[in-house]
Amino acid sequence: MAHPAARQVDRLQSEAMESAPPDLAQAVEGYASYLQAERRLSTYTQRNYVQALRDFLEFLKGRQGDRPPVGAQFIAPPAQVIAPGQSNVQLPADSGAINRAPAATAIDRLTIREYLSALAEGHPARASVSLRLSALRSFFRYLVREGIVSTSPVGKGFQLKREVRLPNFLSESEIRRLVENPPADTPLGLRDRALLELVYASGVRASEVTGLDLGQVSLGMRQVRVWGKGNKERIALVGAPACRALAAYLEQGRPQLAGPRATNAVFLNNKGGRLTVRGLELAVKKHARLAGLDESRVYPHLLRHTFATHMLEGGADLRVVQELLGHSQLATTQIYTHVSQAQAREVYLRSHPRAQKHGESGTGK
Q1: Is 249 designated active site?
Q2: CA distances (Å), 334 to each of 167, 208, 329, 347, 365, in order?
Q3: Active site residue 205
Q4: Which listed residue (63, 254, 304, 310) is catalytic?
Q5: Is 261 annotated in the active site?
Q6: Cβ atoms 240, 201 nearer than 8 A
Q7: Partner of 201 at 20 to 30 A CA spacing, among 92, 174, 225, 274?
Q8: Residue 213: CB partners within 8 Å, gap ≥ 6?
């Protein structure tokens, strides 16, 4: 029969474990489930956020060498328990403290600042630091929502000025060479032609085009229905060349790629399953190389950049392009106006009688 003192130690330890707040590792796993079930973020975003938080945990573990664990929560029963009939029964050394480090409740603003300072020492890209901050901010909002912490340590004071990088794009001749490269006499050639035409014609994201199901395509209406970021639905318009390429693939190419197991996916791989984003990337790079383009600078999202740039260059309204791209903020779309501004300057210099240099033809006096 267990000694009363031992039973009391077990009870104290059990109560301590039950009342202790979850440690960060546990909280991160709960947050990962929350992202998938409730936020419905893309798999890519979920993976990046969770990995960023695990990197944060590694940082905390690395700091524990020379000091007490950051955020460590030690729950210690009384050093001595007096048992009936005995005096001063000493607890075993390893049962006096239950290490729940690091505890979510103990992470403060100073911890976040030290983490950002440590990141800065490695001179990471601004986008990488911004991703980690976004992950931490979202994570602690989740902890507040769940009642695990009362306030978030990642407040408004932690803001990075976003680095503006102009997107690359292909010229009209380059995009023509790319989309017309796939052969029309093979199932994969028909698929790739439809893929390239569709992404350039509509500006859809890689995850949106690979996630397309047959019921989301309307060739008669020249449109596809896609699910974008935040599980938002939008209609993407498709031009006549893309519709023709898509019709040819659906009629001739897809039936030959389809395997024994039925799938509603529009774009299939050579085994009959749904084409992945990685498979799309490989196809884009393959045809870029065959078309004589620098494959290192050609990737699926570049076609989206090219779509937006060519739309604005052709005179499309900025808000129309915003709607077609599925951007929630107009500022995100405005980055593409650099081409329109360059074109406007060129037109101005060519057209205005007072804009040209003295002595050139077409100047007025």
Answers
A1: no
A2: 11, 22, 9, 20, 37
A3: yes
A4: 304
A5: no
A6: no
A7: 274
A8: 264, 265, 266
Residue found by looking up tokens 């945990």 in the block: 57
Say which of 205, 254, 305, 310 is annotated catalytic: 205
Helix (H, G, I), strand (E, B) or coil at 364: coil
Q: Which of 229, 244, 285, 289 is catalytic?
A: 229
Q: 261 and 272 in contact (C-beta within 8 Å)? A: yes
The Cα–Cα gap between 146 and 155 comes to 18
Superfamily (CATH H level) for 172-299: Intergrase catalytic core (1.10.443.10)
Name the residue ranges covered by the structural domains of the chain: 4-145, 172-299
**CA angle at 107 for the pair 101 and 109, rounded to the nearest 5°:** 155
The DSSP call for residue 144 is H
301-352 per-position pLDDT tens digit? 999 999 998 998 888 888 888 888 988 888 778 777 765 566 666 666 776 6
Global confidence as pTM: 0.57
**In this predicted model, what pLDDT tens digit does every residue of 40-93 receive, in sequence order?**
677 778 889 989 998 898 888 876 554 443 333 322 333 333 333 333 333 333
Q: Is 304 a catalytic residue?
A: yes
The catalytic position among 39, 109, 141, 301 is 301
With CA atoms as reference, report the closest residue to 133 among 156, 110, 149.
Answer: 156
- 234 neighbors 220 (Cβ within 8 angstroms): no
Given a contact cutoff of 8 angstroms between Cβ atoms, the answer to whether 302 and 175 are in contact is: no
Cα-only R_g, the chain: 29
Residue 227 is given by DSSP the state: E
